Amino acid sequence: MSKREHWGSRFGFVLAASGSAIGLGNIWKFPYIAGENGGAAFIFVYLLCIVIVGLPVVIAEILMGRTTQRNPVGAFRKLGGNKFWVMVGGLGVLAGFIILSFYAVIAGWSAGYMVEALQGKFSSFHTVTDSTNYFNSLVGDPTWMIGFYSIFFVFTMAVVYLGVKDGIEKGSKIMMPILFIILIILMIKGISLKGSGEGLSFLMKPDWSKINGSSILIALGHAFFTLSLGMGALMTYGSYLDQKTNIPNAATQIVFLDTLIALMAGVAIFTIVFATGQDPAVGPGLIFNTLTVIFGNMTGGYVFGLLFFLLLTLAALTSSISLLEVVVAYFVDERGWRRHRAVLMFGLFVFLFGVPSALSFNLLADFTMFGKTFFDLADFAASNILLPLGGFFISVFVAWIWGLDKAMIELKKGAENIFKDGDWLINAFKIFLKFIAPVMIFIVFLHSTGLLESAIEQVKNYWIIILVIVILLIVISRRRIKK
Ligand code: PHE
User: Fold this and answer.
1) Does 2 reside within a domain?
2) pLDDT (tens digit, 9 = 90+) per residue, 117-167?
């Protein structure tokens, strides 16, 4: 077998991994869920989730990848996981497959809106009703949907086809700085608008009354999605690292950049939304319906609208390549396929699998299973079931099965300077990974599948559930010791 490809530099890895993390989740989803859940207070809870659960699991995933130099399936196997754990890795590959299939549909909208912006279409919108009707007519058109979905897919495949260093790393080095610059321009524009102060205080003055169990769970669930956790994307990217990289450092930078971009997108979007007196809590339509009307009516809106959708499309592209890479890495490592063949074959496969999702807004709108369209079903299965479950198993595996002692020996490589024994940071990391992350993730999982509500109905008490999970963890760890 040929030698495994590696990143050209540590910086290249951090950019590529940040590119995976920064995506539709940061620019499309984060602002609207923050808007719906009370702004600053929600953001505070979200930041806590990022630090307490996100960062430890990011480190765990990258570490598994670097140690084994394998895709998720191979990684679990190489670290001594039995059939069950290998299957967990397989679920990650499956999640990559499913997420890419619907992610590219929304990314296609964004690419399509770039063309609309280019043609100056937004200036014909006078009210949100105009833009909403227009949006509905576009997504209702199967040709438009499939067209831009395909274009976006071709770009994704092309980058992955070129390989880790010449495709993913190089692409990220070009796209991420552009993304950053556009966001800064949009932020300055937003802040300079009259009345933007209200948008800023919406982001900074917490309204705690909006925070409840459900918004905490939304924050945690989103922390997962936005950091690309739970399906082995970061594990796969980590597998192209050499043993000299300081993982805790790199992970902190990735998490920081992801959070920074989400907050910057929040500032850009809410200053514009408040300055023009629009509603911040309209939900998913915030970008395609609210923002487009604003762009259509402000000075320089043509350029800013165009820049905005270019930003969104680039952010989506650096994420979608990481999704495809997980699938490709599996076939290359485990099945001995050549990269080019794997990209063409499985790119096409995922593409076809996503066609019903693209048609869920038009031809197949009435075709529902469990009350959901194909698109909603794919989104639900991946975001609400596979990702939280994957994150849960990854933290349990590293902390309890592979074992923190062995994991720490690996983590120390390249990170000797921050790794003094008894260091409080390292101890905090161990506690978070061992107890806090799995317990919290499991609760999110129960919530997002609707099981939590029925469980609470049954036991009327959160603490009993936490206790059950802790006992479960202890049982798992005892089994390992007996072996
Ligand atoms: N993190 C990406 C975003 O925020 C989505 C993603 C999830 C990418 C899982 C890869 C893996 O848009």
Assistant:
1) no
2) 999 999 999 988 899 999 999 999 999 999 999 999 999 999 999 999 999
Q: What is the pLDDT of residue 422?
A: 57
DSSP result, 225-273: HHTTTTTTHHHHHHTT--TTS-HHHHHHHHHHHHHHHHHHHHHHHHHHH
Query: Has residue 469 been placed in a domain?
Result: yes
The pLDDT assigned to 482 comes to 45
* pLDDT per residue as tens digits for the range 404-417: 999 999 999 998 87
Centre of ligand 1 to C-alpha 99, Å, is 8
CA distances to 12, 351, 374, 476 from 18, in Å: 10, 24, 29, 33
Which pTM was predicted? 0.91
Pocket test for ligand 1, best of 18, 20, 175, 222 (most atoms within 8 A of CB): 20
Domain of 242, CATH number, reads 1.20.1740
| Residue 133 belongs to domain spanning | 10-477
Most ligand 1 atoms within 8 A of CB, residue of 33, 50, 71, 103 to mutate: 103
Domains contained in the chain, number: 1
- Ligand 1 mutation target, pool 225, 383, 385, most atoms within 8 A of CB: 225
Q: Does the Cβ of 319 fall within 6 Å of ligand 1?
A: yes
Q: Match 């074959």 to its residue by tokens.
A: 345
Residue 367 placed within a domain: yes
User: Is the CB of 233 within 6 Å of ligand 1?
Assistant: yes
| pLDDT tens track for 78-123 | 998 899 999 999 999 999 999 999 999 999 999 999 999 999 999 9
Residue partners of 189: CB distance under 8 A and separation at least 6: 268, 272, 300, 304
With a 6 Å cutoff on the Cβ, whether 312 touches ligand 1 is no
